[in-house]
Every structure is written in structure tokens, then in C-alpha cells.
Amino acid sequence: MQALYQWDLSGLELNRIETQFLENENFQGVDREYFTEILHQVPACLDEIEAGLAGSLNRPLTEVDPVERSILRIAAYELILRPDIPCRVVINEAVQLARKFGADQGHAFINGVLDHAARTIRKQEMKTTGKSTV
User: 2-129 sits in which CATH class?
Assistant: First the structure.
């Protein structure tokens, strides 16, 4: 999330950000392969990700806090392109990130947006698992 946040605000090249994080951050226990996937695939799939979120937002994504925007993009990527990750897991992880890094009530916003988006993106899963909110 922090690497995507940096990319969003700075526009730096993704490989440069990746190198910086791999060299300077404590990556003990981090799945480096998944980190690389998220860092490179979220920007590569940005149009699809943002289209998947558009109907669930009450304002343009550009007006969402940059931390929350990064969290939403990661979660939407997982909802759209990683069906192997259950909706509940995607939403729970996003809410936890928002609690740690976001604004005071950012986690509630993230939860609401993603719950709504999941009902559109993964209709069948949502029907069989029920309510996904945290």
C-alpha cells in the first residue's frame, strides 16, 4: 500500500519504487512476489480497477484521500483479478490497512465502498457467502 501511495503521489517509475522498498524497508515476513505483483499490476490495470470502483463511490476517485485511494485500488484489483482470494479476506485486509494508515473513519468508508463493489464484481460469491462487511 505504501509503495502504491508513493507511486500515486510522486509518479516515480515503479521499478525505482520497488528497488527502494526492497532495499530500505523491513521485508521480513513479506511475500515479495505478491508485493511485486500488486505494485506493477495495479497501475497496469488502473482503468479496469477504477471502473470497478466507480459505481460504489459517492465522488470521483481522484477526490478520495490518497491513502484510502491506494487501499481501494489494491482491494479492487484483488476483487476483479484475484478470484482466488475470498471477498471477506479482501475487505478485511483493506479495512485493517485503513485502520492502520487511513483517516479516523477511513475504515468505515473503505468497508462500505468495497462491500458495495464486491456485490457487483463478485455477485455469485456474495450470494453464497452473505454479508461481507466487517
Answer: mainly alpha
